Each structure stands twice: as C-alpha cells, then as structure tokens.
Amino acid sequence: MNTKIFKTALFGAVLAVGTLASCKKSSSDPDSQVSGPDVWDRKFVTLTAAFPDAAGEAGNGGTMAYAITPAQAADPNFEVNVFAMGYGLRSQRTARVQGSVNGNFLYNIQYTGTDGGIFNKYKVEGQKSFVDTREEVNTEPVLGTSPRWVVAAEGIGVGVFASSKVTTVPNDKGEQVTGAGATFADVASTAKIAILDLNDPQITRQTEFTIPFTADQTKNGYQIGRIDVPVLNAAKNKIYIGCNLTRTDKTKLSGVNTSGAQTWSTTTSELGTATLVVDYPSLTNPKLIYSTNSKINNHSYRTMTQYVANDGNVYQSTATSGSQFLRILGTTNEYDNTYNFDLKLALGTPNNVAIRAWRYIKDGVGLVLYTETGVNGGYLALVDLTTKTATKLATDNQTDSGFSGLTAAQNGGKALVGTFGQFQNIGIIGDNFYVPMTPNGVDGNLYIINYKTKTVTKGAKLKNQSGSFYLGAY
Q: Per its UniProt record, what PROSITE patterns does this chain match (predicted)?
C-alpha cells in the first residue's frame, strides 16, 4: 500500500488564493467570507440540469445551475428556466455536483476532457450568481480524468478510482497474450482513494493498493473495475465504498472488440454484494465485506446511495439496478445479514424494481426514486427503513417514458435517455425533501415532500428543452 499525506494542492491562481486566504483569516464576519465551511443559514435551493452535447446525446453536454429561495421553490406560479437563466458549471460533460449542508456551496470535479479531474468550489449567491472561489485542486494524478467522488461527510470529500488487469497463461516465449485466444490465469484489482478538505480545498491524503481478494477468488476471475459512493461512518473511523464486482469466465478464451482491445466473457458471481472498507483517516487496512442477502452491485451511478442513519448504522441500496436496502452495523463494520429490506416486496408490485436514487432524512425515513421493469415512467416512494414499509407518492407526468427511458427498438430507432438514470441529488431542508421532476425534454415541477405528514406539494415550474432534464436540488 502506498499512502501519502499532502499539505499543498494545485490551485488555479496563486494571487486569487492568497486574497481568499487572507480574507478568511482576518474577517470575523462570516458573510464577508468567500470560502471556508458552510456557517450560514440556508438562503437558497440550487437546481441543476444537463443539456445535450454537439452530437445530440441527451444530458451529455454539460450542467447548468440556478438558485432560488425556499419561498420561490414552493410557489407553483414561479417558473425557472435554468437553460436560459442559469450558470454553467465547469465540465466538458455532465458535472458531478455535490453541495454543502446548508446549500451555500456547490462542489464539482470536472468530468473528462482537458480539465477532467479539476476540483472547483462555488459560493451560492442566488439566481445565476455562483462565485468561483478559485481554489482549484488537481485530482487527476490520483483519480484520473473521470473521477468518482462524493461528500462523504460534511466538509470531507472522498474521490475513488478502481481498475483491474488480467494475467494470461504465457505463450511459448513466456510472454503475455494480448489479443484473441488467450487463456485466463489470474486478475488483480487496484483501488485509489483521495481525501479532499472541502473547507480549505486540498488533497490531505491519498493511497493506492491492491484490492484484497483471496488468491482463490482472483484465480476464479473475481475483480472490481469500478468503485463509488464512499461514505464515512458515524464513528468517523471507517470509509465504506460501493463496488462493481464482476467475474471473468476463466473457461473461455479472450476475444477482441472493434478497437482491437482484448475482451473477456463474464460469468455469474457466487459472492454477495461487496463493500470495500478502509480505516479513516489513515486509509489503511483495506477489507472486503460481503452481503449474504444480495448479489446486486452497490456502486450506483452519479448519485449517492448509502447514508449514516440516526441509529449509527449505514443503509445502502443495491442501486441503480436492484431493489434492496442492506445494512452495515456501526458497531462491527460488517453487514447485518439479518436485515434485508426489498422495495419490490414493500410496494407489492409483481414487476422488478430498480432504485435509481434515494436520500435519507431522519427517523429511519428516506425518499426513493425508482422505476419498474416493463412500466413507463418514474416514481417516488417514502420508505421506513425500520419497519421495512413503503408509501408510493403521486406526481404529475409520472408515467412519462422520459423518466424511465426507452431502447432504440422501443423508440423508433433512437434510444431515449431517462431522467432517473442520470439523476444526482435530492435536496433536504428541515423535514422536507426537494425533488425536481422533469422527463427528458418535457416541462415539470419541483416537488416538496414532508417526511412526517407524507404531504406532496407541487412547487416551482421547471421549463425544459429537448434532450435535457433537471438533475438535482441542493
């Protein structure tokens, strides 16, 4: 394991950083501060939305942001057009946006392109006013240009990256076989982790290590090629990281794809849902833990899917294709295999259910965005993690296929990207969830759900455009 502590980071402009640092140190008035921790009361709800790229790929061209007041958010006569009125966040493709606890800062690590891996921090000041603090941090040397990252706890960002490499049976010259017809011998998976101080932006620690499968597991093809959604536990001494666990079929020879790269067939995994656990803040002692209740991966897609609940345990969903909630005990840092909450059963539907996004609020309650196999639309449900019950909620346009998406065969030859497959964040203020609901290319509304009364309020109108959708509330 290679672990390093960083005391400095790459900033966008030395002069700008020096000015900001001076301001933070000398001012006793938090309102005059441009950066630092989120010490202000909440003033705004920020809405984000994605638009198509030059080739017309829905939601793939970048991300816009616009901040409204909570009163405006609750007003069904107030209209927002983030595409015409908003601020463009830095990113060649869809930005992976995170927010501070009171919504006064947005954070982003740019995704792909020349500046892929660059961290940016923005002060939210209302409407299209987002002040770039210019505290840029280059995470690319650690996480690459397409990093996976989240706010793992307030003020603490965690970025992760994983890759795997197959070893083949050597040829007659003792060399690795790189094309088609190779025989599988073994595979090794590597993880990289970086800790970001979000209050004083810099990488404070980073590590790289081989993911600790057993020798028998790797020789049987088990590997992890992607990790995501890290969360810091209640004791703040462990990080839990979701894993995309796959298994190479060692009985089959390699092939090649259209680019000439070597490919391998996969087979069914006999291991359960896997979580990578490391010590915090040292990032040492990596360990894999497995659920016996599920084999669906838990690495999510662009949205946080595991949270620390009031009982001190972490609840994770098998997102974004599964329907289960699993529990990791705060006392043991192991799966509680006596706990298994299946949303499909709670809803009483015969169709397979996919949890696309969810957010924990308090008192064992969360809000879920989900789709059903064979059913057009995207749906909301309040879930009680303690009683393992679900209450389906009603919203306008919920049966629109622009939420769930359509295959090319279903949509006249061109696939329709579903909003729920790209969704990033459910906002929270007090006892309320804030969810922007817009099918691909269709107008919608911001919905406010009170977790105690289960009341659904249709709020601000959200103006949409072709190939676009609102991604989150912060």
A: PROKAR_LIPOPROTEIN
